[in-house]
Write a structure and sequence with these properties.
Elements lengths: L1 H23 L3 H24 L22 H20 L4 H16 L2 H15 L3 H9 L5 H23 L7 H25 L21 H13 L6 H26 L4 H24 L3
Helix pairs in contact: 3-4, 3-8, 4-7, 5-6, 5-7, 5-11, 7-11, 8-9, 8-10, 8-11, 10-11
Amino acid sequence: MSEKLNKQRDKVASKSLFKLLSQKVPQKLPKQLFKQLTKQWTLCCYALSFFSRCPVPRTINFKAYPFHLGNAYFPFVGALYAVICFVVYYLSLSVFEHTISVILMLLAGLLFTGAFHEDGLADCCDGFGGGYNKTQCLAIMKDSQIGTYGVLGLIILFALKVTALIQLSELNQFSEFGLLHFFGVLFSAAVVSRFSALWLIQYSEYAREDETSKSTQSSHQLPQSYLVGALLFSLLSLLWMPVMSILAIVIVTTTSTLLCKAYFNKKIEGYTGDCLGFLQQLNELLILLTCLALFSANL
């Protein structure tokens, strides 16, 4: 009899406790959290649809939020790019040597981004190489045909990038951890280089006055909280490195970004989408070369 009474008391106590807790927990919290997660997922899809060829769900409403807020996920797109490239490289190693594996890896990256940034680099080389004033530079950049400067720029870019990646992949001072460090280099270079382009958007003016350019919708500045989030994500991508390596990469990318900003302002009084592609590819290459120099010297 006493056992039944104790069980009934326990049930009543547990029900009253659950009722008390349910009253204290805000009912709006799950709805607010779900709404915020939905917003961030939508903004992430904005970035994927603009900066890559990655398909996004058809249910995404591209008018739900300001499109430029998706720029905050530009470094995340770089992280996804690095993961895809490394997977292709790792699988290719089971069949081919380092050279072919690196080339196949870069091909996978080009398919993922649609050569979006490389196209910007080529247009920049043509525009700044052949234009004598702002009007000419912008007109040449907008021309869909590639010129001599653009071809030379792409040849130099891929020659240096392929060579640096091959030498990085062949470094053996990390023994069994070599592949992990190689992935770390890819990840850091892809993420940090994209944040540098994001910084240029934030602290420079868009050079084109017309509204027909594809980059116009993404040329607005981000709220500081979004920019800080992208910065923290970019810095986290470097934490696997020694402190001296992190400092070297930060100094190199900051210097190149400031120099490019000054040059763009001098030539066209701001930046264009092509300038962002040029800066991203330049800093990605500089990070690869910096890592190669540091790791080769065991720093």
